[in-house]
Design goal:
The chain is of the alpha/beta class. It is 44% helix and 14% strand. It folds into two domains: 231 residues, Aldolase class I (TIM Barrel, Alpha-Beta Barrel), CATH 3.20.20; 92 residues, no CATH class. Strand 4, helix 5 and strand 5 form a beta-alpha-beta unit. The protein is globular and about 65 Å long.
């Protein structure tokens, strides 16, 4: 690998933590982050993370084994905290001696961090507020990911640049913190490293890597899109639950807004109970990411993408993307 002395110095703690050559994580992306992309990222000196998503323990078991077959480098597993079989999934990670588990999608339930640490793995958690970050680090989390609203997928309300200013001066000296959301080029990585981050996590930039199994139509949608096309989902009525997701606007996102209005009107007229209304909204996107990523239905599916999508213009091997990011970062630091 080429040498990047300034970058390597600032990434050292992150690299030691991950066991990698670069402190660049490819954030788990459901349906996208499977064996091929994960192995490609790790083989290129980054840190790939399997997206467990809604997988059963059996499927996760097979995915970890298959990934091991493609790389002997470290990689992690991302588990969603609401998964009804979370502790069985942790047991699968333990059997495979996975080195790093990322807990996403909410506050880790009681005992989960301990169960992961018990088999020797490191635990990475997301924290939307500084107070929660402190609590999670005190109760055993080994590292933190702060992710701003520019990111693709499920998002919080605050921009990465603001989170970085709030969290890094307070936590980065004593803790490993990775910054995610809206990073498309190495100059941005340099800025966060200089603020004390141990490394960064990117999703959007890697989603269309040559090794990604995403459908060609999904990749084309990324290549065509500008930053402004990656919109956060809109909540039309406070009574109806909408988890904010950033995705490319399409027929599906338009229909979703329309559907919320219809369901709200049914509620107003008393034709439907609250529980039924909420269920209808929750179920609207069921299976939608798979439809976009695997089936290539980019009109009705959920084309999750971050605002950095405008910087994704062509298919490139993962190794080339990582090399480009490292070169840009090094140039900025030199
Ligand atoms: C298509 C897609 C699917 C995603 N799925 C997940 C997921 O299953 N679990 C998760 O923790 N994050 C998920 N994310 C977020 C990424 O892991 C990563 O944190 C994010 O993409 C970083 O911001 P960026 O998109 O601006 O690079 C997803 C992102 C995208 C673009």
């Amino acid at each position: 690998m080429a040498t990047y002395p300034n970058t390597s110095r600032l990434m050292q703690r992150g690299c030691e933590f991950l066991g990698t050559e670069t402190a660049i994580l490819c954030g788990a992306m459901s349906w996208v982050s499977e064996r091929n992309l994960v192995a490609a990222i790790s083989n290129a000196g980054g840190f790939g993370v399997i997206a467990c998503g809604a997988m059963t323990p059996e499927l996760l078991d097979a995915e970890i084994a298959a990934t091991r077959g493609l790389t002997d480098k470290p990689f992690g597993v991302n588990l969603i905290t609401m998964h009804p079989m979370l502790f069985d999934l942790i047991a699968v990670c333990a059997r495979h001696k996975v080195g790093h588990v990322v807990l996403a999608g909410g506050i880790p339930p009681k005992g989960s961090v301990e169960a992961i640490r018990e088999f020797g793995a490191k635990v990475l958690v997301f924290a939307p507020t500084l107070a929660l970050a402190r609590r999670l680090l005190r109760s055993g989390a080994d590292a933190l990911v702060i992710e701003g609203s520019e990111a693709g997928g499920h998002i919080g309300p605050v921009a990465t640049s603001v989170l970085a200013q709030e969290f890094l001066p307070e936590l980065a000296e004593d803790h490993v913190v990775f910054v995610a959301g809206g990073i498309g080029r190495g100059e941005m990585i340099a800025a966060y490293l200089e603020m004390g981050a141990s490394g960064v996590q990117l999703g959007t930039r890697f989603a269309c890597a040559s090794e990604s199994i995403a459908h060609p139509a999904f990749k084309q949608a990324f290549f065509r899109a500008n930053a402004r096309d990656a919109e956060a989902s809109v909540q039309v009525d406070p009574r109806l639950p909408v988890i904010p997701v950033r995705a490319l606007k399409n027929k599906g996102t338009e229909l979703f807004t329309q559907r919320q209005r219809e369901v709200a009107a049914l509620l107003d007229s008393g034709k439907i109970e609250m529980a039924e209304a909420q269920l209808q909204i929750e179920q609207f996107w069921a299976g939608a990411l798979r439809r976009a990523v695997i089936d290539g239905d980019v009109e009705n599916g959920s084309v999750m993408a971050g605002q950095s999508v405008g910087m994704v213009t062509r298919e490139q091997p993962a190794a080339e993307i990582i090399a480009e990011l490292m070169q840009e970062c090094e140039a900025a630091l030199s």
